[in-house]
Amino acid sequence: MTLFTDVIEGLRISWDAIRANKLRSSLTTLGIVIGIVTVTLMGTAIDGLNGAFLKSLSVIGADVLFVQRAGWLIETHEEWLKAMRRRPITLLQVKALERQMTMAQAIAPSVDTQTGPVKYKAVSADSVTVVGTTEQFVYTGGVTIDMGRFFTQLEAENGRPVCVIGATVATNLFVRETPLGKSIRVGPGRFEVVGVMEKQGDLGPISQDNNVIVPLPQFMRTFWQPEDFQLQIKVTDLHKLDDAKEEARVLMRKIRHVAPTQEDDFAIDQQETFLNIYRRVAGTIAGIGLFITGLSLFVGGIGIMNIMFVSVAERTREIGIRKAIGAKRRTILLQFLIEAASICCLGGLMGLAIAYPLTLVLGHYMPASMSPLVAGIALLVSIFTGIVSGFFPAWRAARMNPVDALRNE
Fold first, then answer.
1. At what angle do helices 329-362 and 22-57 cross, to 10 degrees?
2. From its phi and psi, is residue 161 left (phi > 0), alpha (psi between -120 and 50) or beta?
3. CA dist., res. 295 & res. 349, Å (int)
4. What value does the CA radius of gyration of the chain take, rounded to a whole number of Å?
């Protein structure tokens, strides 16, 4: 008999055995069903979060460098204290970098603050971040305008009281009218809305839509605070990002008068830095989730193994007859492996049928959707669990002595 024939015959015998013991087979799949539901929900949640994060991260262009006093990757309290002792980045240093850097397409300084409620008439929006910057921010910040326009260089230089608001602010303040041309109160000042940004989503705990962007001079007059700017540098060529980063580092050391023997008193970050941080956090969460789901599948696998040992014991005489008329060890081994895998495959299908509506409910509270890849992986995991769990019972059946098996009553 060929391997293909053995597989076909094993499938037929396995399905006959499952149909003959419907209740036992159903109870056996319970552990696998729970494990697959857990695996699927975890996979869809992680997949959805990854997609939402990468979509939000795309706002931080891959060709943009971020220069600030403290970097994004600070792991200890000592590192944070050390970064806070660094000298702030001043507006004079920003202007000097703008004049000297040759590999930058646009450079935008920015500074932000949290203010009180932003108000329009009797309506207010809370927890709004006010960002002060220049007209170059439209290039470096990945800003896409949904309505209106971004403020111009003339408006920025003259400090005209204009602003561009995020999608959340626009939704909260203007329910039945257009925001363009309206005057809103931001802290102690009033600003005319000239543009509304497209919805960008959240980047971790940071909302990119609940903000108001104003020209830098007007920000400094209205929300005065000690100078400490962040710089966003959009490079001219993505393929020369490392060269541009090195040029910015050398110029910043020169402008800030850092001695050759001293380390940088500033940090330069890029999209890859944020992505690496997220991967570490997501990897830890996924590892914990996999451990929990692995326990569920382990319990389900133990149940499959026990039932398969019972099945082998009940069918010992059948095994003896099949071996006596010429069935090979391989044929018997495949028969019971296929039976265990079939039971787990049924459990996997039942688990997917339960997980799909749960995913739809979960999608109302967080980004989650069941992709064909996640469903396929879940089925493969269930089949693999069946093969592993059924191997020892199948191996025991395959190695039975036909004479001893025939004597079994």
1. 50
2. beta
3. 19
4. 32
d(CA 389, CA 340): 7
Burial of 396 (0-12, 13-18, 19+ CB in 10 A): middle
Quote the CA–CA distance of 247 and 245 in Å, as a whole number.
5
In a structure prediction context, what are the per-residue pLDDT tens digits for the chain, which is 409 residues long?
A: 566 666 676 667 666 666 666 666 676 777 788 888 888 887 787 777 777 666 665 556 667 888 988 877 776 778 788 878 888 888 899 999 999 999 988 899 988 888 778 999 889 888 888 999 999 998 888 788 889 999 998 888 887 899 999 999 999 999 888 999 999 999 888 999 999 998 876 554 456 788 999 999 889 888 876 778 889 998 888 778 889 989 999 999 999 988 888 888 888 888 776 667 777 777 777 777 778 777 777 877 887 888 778 777 777 777 777 777 777 777 777 877 887 888 888 888 888 888 888 888 877 777 777 778 878 888 888 888 888 888 888 888 778 776 666 665 5
Q: Is the dihedral of CA 76, 248, 64, 95 positive or negative?
A: positive
**For the residues of 142-184, what is the DSSP string, one character each?**
---EEEE-PPPHHHHHHT-SEEEE-HHHHHHH-SSS--TT-EE
CA distance 24 to 389: 16
Q: What's at 51, amino acid-wise?
A: G
Compute how many other C-beta atoms are within 10 angstroms of the C-beta atom of residue 361.
Answer: 9
Which residues on neighbouring strands pair with residue 192, listed in sequence order?
162, 183
DSSP 111: E
